[in-house]
Amino acid sequence: MNDTLKLVFVNPEQAKAAIHGMIAPYCKAQWQNGARRLAVTVEPEDDAKTAQQGRYYWGVVLAEISEQARIGGVQYTDEAWHELMKRMHLPRRTLKTIVAGKKRPVVYTVIGSTKGIGVRKMSAFIERVLAYGAVDQGVMFSCLKWENSHV
Q1: Do 75 and 97 touch, CB atoms closer than 8 A?
Q2: pTM of the model
């Protein structure tokens, strides 16, 4: 059963109406279909990264870096540049996990990701990548603002 109900509320009235009109009937239907347990999570929603930011980042920023920049005379793909930019400009996360046979949790570090970061954080990331491209690699970008891009 992979049915998921995702709702976004902008005021208390919407939340109350959804609880009575959508969440309760949804739960009832899931139980009737054999679900034994249901989970509900309510949390503040960050602004989702816009599709325009993603198109600009991949279609302008990384495309132009991969066309113009070289490291040691080598030209790299946009995917390789994206990996470098994540490693340079996104925070790493430390995670713990239980591993069979180990007495203590195993601690490891994960490179940051652009997936799921909000519009403001993605804008800041793009700004850092633009600065790196222009200053460190001499890239001349055709468009410097994702809001103005037409990709």
Answers
A1: no
A2: 0.65
Please tell me the distance from the alpha carbon of residue 14 to that of residue 124, in angstroms, as a whole number: 32
Does 65 or 15 have the greater pLDDT score? 65
Which two structure tokens, joined as six digits, stand for 137? 């690699």
The number of beta carbons lying within 10 Å of the beta carbon of residue 147 is: 10
Please report, as a single letter, which amino acid is at residue 79. E
- The C-alpha angle 39, 117, 66, rounded to 5 degrees, equals 140
- 6 secondary structure, DSSP code: -
pLDDT averaged over the chain?
A: 89
What percent of the chain shows pLDDT beyond 90? 60
Q: b/e map of 73-105 (b: 16 or more CB within 10 Å)?
A: eeeeebeebbeebbeebbeeeeeeeeeeeeeee
Secondary structure element (H or E) that encloses residue 21, with its range: none
Q: Which residues pair with 91 in a beta bridge?
A: none
Residue 30 makes CB contacts below 8 A (sequence gap 6+) with 1, 3, 38
Alpha helices in 33-144 (DSSP H): 51-56, 63-68, 78-89, 119-131, 137
Report pLDDT for 1: 43
